[in-house]
Amino acid sequence: MKRRRFIDLSIAIEADLPSDPPMMIPKIDYSNHEAGAVQMELFFPGLRREDLPGGLGWAVETLTLTTHSGTHLDAPFHYHPFMDKGKAAFTIDEVPLEWCYGDGVLLDFRHKADGERITVDDVKKELERINYEIKPLDIVLVQTGADAVWGTPQYLLKGAGMDRESTLFLTEKGVRVTGIDAWSWDRPLPFLAKEFQGSGDPRVIWEAHFAGIEIGYCHMEKLANLSAIGRQTGFTVCCFPVKIKGASAGWCRPVAIVEES
Predict the structure, then answer these.
(1) Do 132 and 161 fall into the same domain?
(2) What is the DSSP string of 141-189?
(3) Fewer beta carbons below 10 Å: N end or C end of the chain?
(4) Does residue 1 register a pLDDT over 80?
């Protein structure tokens, strides 16, 4: 009899962690059960606190964060107003749901140095190593090892990243959702900035994101636990985003589903 194993590929949204630029670090205001009892008295005139179980009410949290905080799915609109060479780019509420549920493929690039490009040749070699051919609507997950330093300032500098050509290599084969265990699908921003300052060539800036102008696609960022999948193919990924009207991204809790005997 087969059983299903569910692997959580997300990181939790936490307050005050230095794993984002300062303007993007989430804030969470926790209202505890004691405060909830006071609030409930306002909603239910005549209610006494002792009427509540243990004198306690509801707990509520208020968050201040961006749509790119925590594990999230970027919509094509994040990269540019247009995709597919001129079509209006999908916002997160317009992303087809069938893009977000499909066969998973895990590509391991942990041997690559921080800030290094993951090239088309790298992707081809990895696919040859695992004896797999990409098909339309596969969900391709890229492992760099960056999640090992989640919660620290080093996270912003950790991991290799995709480039324009390697991204297009996947999307030209019909891939519409990808993901990475680093802060960005591109190489870390400080590496891009240093290269731009040295060369003056704007093509290095956000090249993998901007590939979505040519072929619209989504990618997840800040994945985790990819090693826990235990295989590189033969699993399913589910990554439906929160539906935010007209937004460039939505938080998601991606799950790898593995069927085992």
Answers:
(1) yes
(2) EEE-SGGGGTTSGGGGG-S-EE-HHHHHHHHTTT--EEEESSS-SSSPH
(3) N
(4) no
What are the DSSP calls for 104-146, one per residue?
A: EEEEE-TTSPTT-EE-HHHHHHHHHHTT----TT-EEEEE-SG
Is the same domain home to 138 and 170? Answer: yes
Q: Are 220 and 239 in contact (CB under 8 A)?
A: yes
Band (2; pLDDT cuts 50, 70, 90):
confident
- Domain range spanning residue 38? 27-64
User: Which amino acid type is present at position 215?
Assistant: I
| Segment 124-150, tens digit of pLDDT | 999 999 999 999 999 999 999 999 999
CA distances from 34 to 49, 63, 198, 229, 230 (A): 9, 19, 57, 41, 44
Q: Which of 208, 231, 216 is nearest to 88 (CA)?
A: 216
Q: Is 225 left (phi over 0), alpha (psi -120 to 50) or beta?
A: left
Q: Which residues contact 233 (CB under 8 A, 6 or more apart)?
A: 103, 104, 105, 106, 130, 132
Is 163 found in the same domain as 119? yes
